[in-house]
Amino acid sequence: MLNKKEANWNAGSEQEQFAQNHENLFSPKLENLTAFKKRKKGVAVNLDHLAKEMSINTTADFNKEIFAIIPYGKKLCQSFMLYKDEINLIEQTSIQLAKKYLEESWHMEMKSYKETVESFFGQIFNNIPISNSDYSLMPFSTKFRPMKYLWINPGQIFDLPLSKEVAPTMIELTNGFTIEVDRKKRRVIEKMKQSFLTHGIIKRDSINQPVNITMGLLEYLEVNSTQITRQAAKNCEFQHIPGFAHTFFSTYSELHDNRVISDFLREKEIYE
């Protein structure tokens, strides 16, 4: 028969174990998930199998580098948030998380941010990469829900295994996680280049440091040098980053203020 001290110790141990198991379900290590461990080369990780091993979370951690935001569920109202060695299943859409990422990084809203990036490239895009000073995320619309995006960190792409010049393309990340996108390999590489240049615009304005204008783009961004990232950033140097230095945030402020004033005047006309 256990004495009171032993009983309390055992109860405490069980509570700690329960708490640890509970936490592991919300933020499991990839290495502990069967769906990830049994993955095959060139095949996307089965998200349904992955979800069965996890508990749904309500918040995301934006302090760690994001490898991908993957929409999930019948209505794509949930998202997998993938990190280097962990993954969360979040009760938010991928666009909600992308907007939160921008807000957490720069206190920016998506529409004015998009207009600002487009002004630097001198053209209109259907969608644009989002970036902080450390890394970027590039969007891919989903096959059946064109307005739902999955977001992938191009700096963490290790390979495009078994890819041909037809859709879909498999994207293998540096942590071994493979994702399928409904795009041709050529288009994936083009979007990687656009994302690297967007990252360059942001970093150039947020980190003031002397740079040789002929420095390679990957070196400047401190991005993993893989065969695919080198192909995407081929012949790109610091001097090829669009626009002028130290103008991104001021341009955003101007465009955002104009948008707010325009929306206010439009709403005023409606109610007068």
Please give the radius of gyration in angstroms: 22 Å
SS-based class: alpha+beta
Write the element-wise H/E pattern from the N-terminal end onward. HHHEEEEHHEEEEEEHHHH
Query: What is the number of helical segments per DSSP (H or I, 4+ residues)?
Result: 9
Write the layout of secondary structure elements.
Elements: H1 4-26, H2 34-37, H3 47-52, E1 56-57, E2 68-72, E3 78-82, E4 87-90, H4 94-106, H5 110-121, E5 130-131, E6 136-141, E7 149-152, E8 157-159, E9 169-173, E10 178-181, H6 185-206, H7 217-221, H8 227-232, H9 248-271
What would you say this structure looks like, in words?
- With 272 residues, the protein is of the alpha+beta class.
- It has one domain (4-271).
- The protein has 9 helices and 10 strands.
- The chain has a 7-stranded mixed sheet, with helices on both faces. Strands 8-9-10 form a 3-stranded antiparallel sheet.
- Strand 6 and strand 7 (149-152) form a beta hairpin.
- Helix 5 crosses helix 9 (248-271).
Which key phrases capture this entry?
seven-stranded mixed sheet; 10 strands; 9 helices; three-stranded antiparallel sheet; 15% strand; single chain; 272 residues; alpha+beta; globular
